[in-house]
Design goal:
Layout: H1 2-23, H2 30-60, H3 62-85, H4 89-94, H5 99-107, H6 109-128, H7 137-140
Length: about 150
C-alpha cells in the first residue's frame, strides 16, 4: 500500500511539471526550465520503475491484496491530488482569501478537471490492472473527468 501511495503522490506532480513545461516555456527563466526538465527526466525513470513494481507486487499478492488495493487506491489518489494541487492554508490566511472562495475553488469543476488530468496515469494503470471496476467506480468518481463517473 505504501508504494501505491508514493505513486499517487509522484504522478500528479509530474503531470503538473510536464504541463508547466509545455505551456510556459516562452515566459520561463532558462534556469528554471532546465531544472524542471532535468527533474521530469530523472523522475521518469523512478515512475516507470514504481509502476512496474507496484503492478508486480499487486499481482503476486493474490486476490486479497488486489481487493485491498482496489478499495484503497481511489482514496489515496484523491487525497494526494488534493494535497498536492490545492492552495495551502497558509496562503489563504496570509492573503485573507475568504474561506467560501477558497472552498469553492477547491471543489469546482475546473479543480476536478485539473485533478483528473494529474491523476490520469494512475487511473489508466488501475484500469489496466482491473482495479477500477464497475463496483468501485463510485469511489473513483471524484477523480474521473466530469461525465465519466
Amino acid at each position: 500500500m505504501f508504494l501505491w501511495s508514493v505513486l499517487c503522490g509522484e504522478e500528479p506532480i509530474d503531470a503538473v511539471q510536464r504541463s508547466f513545461l509545455a505551456s510556459a516555456a516562452q515566459h520561463t527563466h532558462p534556469l528554471l526550465e532546465a531544472m524542471c526538465r532535468y527533474h521530469v527526466t530523472d523522475e521518469a525513470r523512478h515512475l516507470r520503475f514504481a509502476r512496474t513494481y507496484v503492478v508486480l507486487l499487486t499481482r503476486e499478492g493474490g486476490a486479497r491484496l488486489h481487493r485491498r488495493v482496489e478499495l484503497f487506491l481511489p482514496a489515496a489518489l484523491d487525497r494526494m491530488t488534493r494535497y498536492i494541487l490545492s492552495t495551502p492554508r497558509w496562503f489563504v490566511d496570509r492573503w485573507e482569501v475568504p474561506m467560501d472562495d477558497a472552498a469553492q475553488a477547491a471543489w469546482d469543476e475546473r479543480d476536478r478537471a485539473v485533478r483528473a488530468r494529474a491523476a490520469r496515469k494512475v487511473i489508466d494503470l488501475a484500469t489496466t490492472e482491473g482495479l477500477l471496476r464497475e463496483r468501485t467506480r463510485p469511489l473513483w468518481s471524484p477523480l474521473l473527468p466530469a461525465g465519466h463517473e
